[in-house]
Amino acid sequence: MTTTTRPRPAALILTPSAEARIATLMAAAPEGTIGVKLSTPRRGCSGLAYSVDYVTEADPFDERIETPGGTFYVDGGSLLYLIGSTMDWVEDDFTAGFVFANPNAKGSCGCGESFTV
């Protein structure tokens, strides 16, 4: 019997707008930066928040996603909270930022700063 495997889907889907923003961030990144990383630290009134930062060294437990503008990492400890999510970059006249559609989030605070799973 032969075992067939199928490609593993990405833990997180990046929209073209999010990929373009990652490229912009990487173009202006401090020296020694190897990518941009998403994590979900505990903070805010609902428990978890989204945090996007530069990263200078790879963690073997992080999910690595290659984008046209650079490498995007998802924190290994945050993966279970983010699987199936879509990350977008949205700009309007008054605000700009990453926006997340997370099917794992069961609720969020009134200001949208944090979420619960």
TrEMBL record:
SUPFAM superfamilies: HesB-like domain. One of its GO terms (cellular component) is cytoplasm. It comes from Rhizorhabdus histidinilytica. GO terms for biological process: iron-sulfur cluster assembly. Residues 12-113 form the Core domain. Signal peptide: none annotated. Belongs to the HesB/IscA family. It comes from the Bacteria. PROSITE patterns: HESB. GO terms for molecular function: 2 iron, 2 sulfur cluster binding. This is Iron-sulfur cluster assembly protein. InterPro entries: ATAP, ATAP_core_dom, Fe-S_cluster_asmbl/transfer, FeS_cluster_insertion_CS, HesB-like_dom_sf.
